[in-house]
Amino acid sequence: MRFRAKIVDLACLNHFSRIINTIAKLAKTCILRLTVCKLYFILSDKVANGGASMWCELSQGNFFDEFQMEGVAAEHNEIYLELVPENLSRALKTSQSAKAVKIKLTNKHCPCLRVAVELPSLSSSSRIVTHDIPVGVIPRRMWNDFREPSVPDFDVSIYLPVLKTMKSVVERMKNLSNFIVIEANLNGEMNLKIESDLVSVTTHFKDLGNPPWASEDGCQSSAQGRDLESMTEACIDIKKLQQLLAGQQVNPTKALCNIVHKRIVHFILLHEEVSLQYFIPAIA
Amino acid sequence: CILQCFLSLAVFGRAIHAIARISDEFWFDPVEKGLALRSVNSSRSAYACVFFSSMFFQHYCWTAVSQPCQQEQHLSLPCKLIIKSVLPVFRCANVLERNVEKCSISTNPSDHHITFQLLCRHGVVKTYNLTFQECDPLQAVFAKHMCPNILRVHSRLLADVMIHFPTSQEEITLSVTPMKVCFKSYTEEDTDFSRTMLTEIQLSPEEFDYFQVGVDSEVTFCLKELRGLLAFSEATSVPVSIHFDRCGKPIAFSMEDLLLEASFILATLCEAEEEAASPGPACCPRPRDR
Question: Taking the model in full, what pTM does it have?
Answer without folding.
Answer: 0.83
